[in-house]
Design brief:
EC 1.2.1.70, Shikm_DH/Glu-tRNA_Rdtase, 4pyrrol_synth_GluRdtase_N, GluRdtase_N_sf, glutamyl-tRNA reductase activity
Length: 415
């Protein structure tokens, strides 16, 4: 078993690169089937969020996985390789544990990534690409994340992306209470953002979504209204603040749509936060006057403020992870012993079964039971000891010391 993690995240690549390597939820099942069909790849899972795309595999062919990622995303290897990280074994396990615990997140200690990892595990399990190794990694990652959050205060007072969005909006507008806010999408991130903005008492909250039913559920939660994405061109001009996070593969807010909205608003400014990867808002929109557009990368500095004070909590969390990586190493090593343990048990079972059949036949023939049991016991001992005794008698002189020490340890032959 060989654990490999190949990925890109906000540390190694800007959003313009990450969005080209991202997988939408609809793409993941097919992608998993294709990846696991690659030569040398026996297990696979895909984690794809706004901040990272990572492939978790059981493989000894890292270049095969790299070539697959480049091919399926439509890029040359040399174009994406500078942005990628490739981790093996214990380093890969440590990375998975840090990700699950929120230590590798833009928002230190955030909990959303844990749910995203659980989604990745579920997708892989349903696709049939989750085997013994990856199941062991993911289940341990979930356990480590719980331990870190229980034993440290790593997530205390963390500045979330949603809170950062509110902070930035309040730099542009005197008060969110005087603004009309539009949320595009109805997923977990939008729900979180809507909760933060709703706490500021905005003048109006509207949710735009592909399906009106799901949009209405979220809008009702905050006393707002729901509209369809198709209504955006005619309604965009109404809103002072726009927050978007969908799984759309292409931008849904274009430059032309925004230009028309600004003209209708007589160039009153619009504050936009695009939390989607791939991006929901065309990059050129950020060049328009009176538009203040922020992506997930633009929020990085805001969410880092105040995190230095939790350095001791990070240290405690890293210590827990280091210990659990050691446990993972021991578990992987024990899995390597399984075939030999199974063969040894089968060998013993065959001897016992054969000698038992011989004893039963003698008893059925009326032979003395005490004599049959004595012979049964002697034959069992002889058969079990034949292989190790033969090995000792044939051991080479230079191997004798190590072999004797191993045999004495296995059979507990203490001095």
């Amino acid at each position: 078993m060989n654990l490999l993690v190949l990925g890109v995240n906000y540390h190694t690549a800007p959003v313009a690169v990450r969005e080209r390597l991202a997988f939408t939820p609809a793409e993941v099942p097919t992608a998993l089937a294709m990846l696991s069909a690659e030569h040398g790849v026996s297990e696979a899972a895909i984690v794809s969020t706004c901040n990272r795309t990572e492939l978790y595999c059981n493989t000894r062919e890292p270049q095969q996985v790299l070539a697959w990622l480049a091919s399926t995303r439509g890029h040359r290897i040399e174009d994406i390789e500078p942005h990628l990280y490739l981790l093996n074994g214990g380093d890969a396990a440590s990375h998975a544990f840090r990700v699950a615990s929120g230590l590798d997140s833009m928002v230190l200690g955030e909990t959303q990534i844990l749910g995203q990892l659980k989604d990745a595990e579920r997708f892989a399990r349903e696709a049939g690409t989750m085997g013994v190794l990856l199941n062991g990694v993911f289940q341990r990652a979930f356990s480590v994340a719980k331990e870190v959050r229980t034993q440290t205060r790593i997530g205390a007072a963390s500045v979330s992306m949603a809170a950062a969005s509110v902070r930035l909006a309040e730099r542009l507008f005197p008060s969110v209470a005087s603004c009309k806010v539009l949320f595009i999408g109805a997923g977990e991130m939008i729900d979180l953002c809507a909760t933060h903005f709703h706490a500021r008492g905005p003048k109006q909250i509207t949710v735009a979504n592909r399906t009106i039913e799901r949009g209405e559920i979220l809008a009702q939660k905050f006393g707002g209204e729901a509209i369809l994405l198709s209504d955006l061109p005619s309604r965009l001009a109404e809103f002072d603040i726009v927050v978007t996070s969908t799984a759309a593969p292409l931008p849904i807010v274009g430059k032309g749509m925004v230009e028309r909205a600004l003209k209708e608003r007589k160039h009153r400014p619009i504050f936009m936060v695009d939390l989607a990867v791939p991006r929901d808002v065309e990059e050129e929109v950020g060049n328009l006057s009176d538009i203040y557009l922020y992506t997930v990368d633009d929020l990085a500095e805001v969410v880092r403020q105040g995190q230095e004070s939790r350095a001791s909590e990070v240290e405690s969390a890293e210590a827990i992870i280091s210990e659990r990586v050691g446990d993972f190493h021991r578990w992987v090593a024990s899995r390597a012993l399984v075939p030999t343990i199974r063969d040894l048990k089968d060998y013993a079972d065959r001897i016992a079964r054969h000698e038992l059949e011989k004893a039963q036949k003698k008893l059925a023939a009326g032979e003395n039971a005490e004599a049959v049991l004595a012979e049964f016991s002697r034959q069992m001992a002889n058969k079990f000891m034949h292989a190790p005794l033969a090995a000792l008698n044939n051991v080479l002189p230079e191997e004798q010391e190590n072999t004797l020490a191993t045999v004495r340890r296995l059979y507990r032959l203490h001095e």
